[in-house]
Amino acid sequence: SVANHRTIIAGFVPRQSGLKPILYKETNVTLAYWCVLLAMFLPWLCAYYSKKVGGFSGNDNHYPRDFLGSTQGEAKRADAAQKNSFEIFPAFAAAVLIAHATGEASQTAINLWATLFVFSRLIYIVLYIKDMPSFRSLAWCAGLACILALFIAAI
Asked: Which of 1, 78, 93 is nearest to 40 (CA)?
């Protein structure tokens, strides 16, 4: 269960005289929750790549979506991968939260499926940008299967 899972992190804790360094702190943030955070940034990674490859300049920042809509090749495909990443993220985040909330799934299963989802999305993005549509579709299906597995594990 989530209550029994602890992640050790390093950092600082506030105290009256300033920040006190700590070597570790126990937290209930699971690997699957970190995967949600990583997945949240994937669309922006795609947007960055699209803008870089597409020749984005400061003037384009007035209407960045118009710029991305006018790109071609890898830049256009990276923008499409960005849009798809935004579309699938809510289902993934919900699946992770529900799998944790029900208490029916083992933490190992939740972490496994969440990690596999992130890897499938990274592969999907690369395949999309490199214009490999059949393999890209397989990677997309793998990501969807991970989401479904999280929901099934929650039952």
From this structure: 93
The pLDDT score that the predictor gives to residue 3 is: 47
Q: 96-103 long-range CB contacts below 8 Å, 24 or more apart?
A: 96/32, 96/33, 96/35, 96/36, 96/150, 98/150, 98/151, 98/154, 99/32, 99/150, 99/151, 99/153, 99/154, 100/2, 100/30, 100/32, 100/33, 101/154, 102/154, 102/155, 103/1, 103/2
Q: What is the mean pLDDT of each run of 10 residues along the chain (155 residues)?
A: 49 58 68 97 97 92 91 96 98 97 95 98 98 98 98 96
User: Is residue 146 within 8 Å of residue 116, measured between CB atoms?
Assistant: yes
Paired residues of 15 in beta bridges: 18
End-to-end, the C-alpha distance of the chain in Å comes to 14
**How large is the angle between the packed helices 133-153 and 107-129, nearest 10 degrees?**
160
Write down the pTM of the prediction. Answer: 0.83
